[in-house]
Amino acid sequence: MARVVLEVRNVTKRFGGLVAVNDMSFDVTQHEVLGIIGPNGSGKSTMINMISGTFPPSAGVIRLNGQDVAGKPAHRIAQMGVARTFQLVRLLPELTVIENVVAGAAFGHRRRWKGEAERYAQTLLDRVGLGGVMNVPVSSLTYINTKRVELARALACEPEVLLLDEWLAGLNPTELQTGIDLIRSLREDGRTVILVEHVMDAIRSLCDRCVVMSSGCKIAEGTPADVLSDAEVIRAYLGADEDA
Ligand SMILES: Nc1ncnc2c1ncn2[C@@H]1O[C@H](COP(=O)(O)OP(=O)(O)OP(=O)(O)O)[C@@H](O)[C@H]1O
């Protein structure tokens, strides 16, 4: 049976009077690509932010390989094996492409330094399609290339669980296909990934399972085909459109 890598149990997050995440529970098993989907404002990023340690849950337990990570600082959770990308790309703009990725190798789960970190960063940059621009400042890159750097930096942490928060957002149709192919190749490598995503083609083609959130709660869980045909899920999305 597949090993559970990440356990989320009865996790709630309150911001003052607002319950952004309400009693969420789910597991992520090794080598699985789990999608977290739901309308805007349903609590997906808040869930990811608690797993990666951006802020602590108000209640509940998050375990990585059986160890409680809830409320630990982000750098500690990164060392324990969780790496992420951000909805709005966050890089060190004054550094080069490779320097940004080496930074990931130095602060991640399996730490590498100096020559070893650089060699590993080069391999990852080749992997994400940036082999030719390793030494340029990230400030000179196109948008999709900044996303690739962020992905390589997260991979450089050698995470047990990789969190991709709307990594495909803002890409044009050609780039989108490239991006989906890249995430598929991670899946083929056997990585364990949580994908927060609005692009349903990506969800359908990449995810083994999905958790659907609405107003902070889990309203469905299952294969993409099952949850996307679920009446409550359809209602949650249509309701969101009507509100927009
Ligand atoms: N730091 C914060 N302080 C206060 N409220 C917050 C904070 N972060 C999120 N929220 C609120 O929590 C709710 C859930 O937001 P969240 O960003 O998690 O949703 P989401 O599903 O990721 O949305 P989207 O798909 O638009 O990114 C929203 O009402 C949001 O305004």
Automatic annotation (TrEMBL):
PROSITE patterns per the UniProt record, alphabetical: ABC_TRANSPORTER_2 (PS50893)
GO molecular function: ATP binding
Residue ranges annotated for the ABC transporter domain, each copy included: 6-240
Any matching Pfam family: ABC_tran
Keyword Nucleotidyltransferase tagged: no
Keywords: ATP-binding, Nucleotide-binding, Transport
Gene3D superfamilies associated with the record: P-loop containing nucleotide triphosphate hydrolases
PANTHER family, A to Z: CONSERVED COMPONENT OF ABC TRANSPORTER FOR NATURAL AMINO ACIDS, CONSERVED COMPONENT OF ABC TRANSPORTER FOR NATURAL AMINO ACIDS-RELATED
Protein name as catalogued: ABC transporter ATP-binding protein
